[in-house]
Amino acid sequence: MHGGVVKMRRSRFIGFRKAMFYIDSTNAPGGQIDFEDCVIENAPGFPFYIRGFDGADSTPCIRVARTWNESTAQGQDIEVEG
Description:
By secondary structure, the protein is an all-beta fold. 0% of the residues lie in helices and 48% in strands. The two termini are 21 Å apart.
């Protein structure tokens, strides 16, 4: 299935253990992903884990604008897909 549309605005993400946002979109079109004016902080996991984002038949977009990222990916030996 394609990635679809994800739009996050003025949101706060804290404490995630593996990945705050995970996408594995192996089918075209890739979709649109937009994070704007967000706070991503204080978590052992990764803010974004993007394994596949096929844009063969479209104009895919991953946009992160005016987003604060602090003290993330601090965990030891994180296995996102496990």
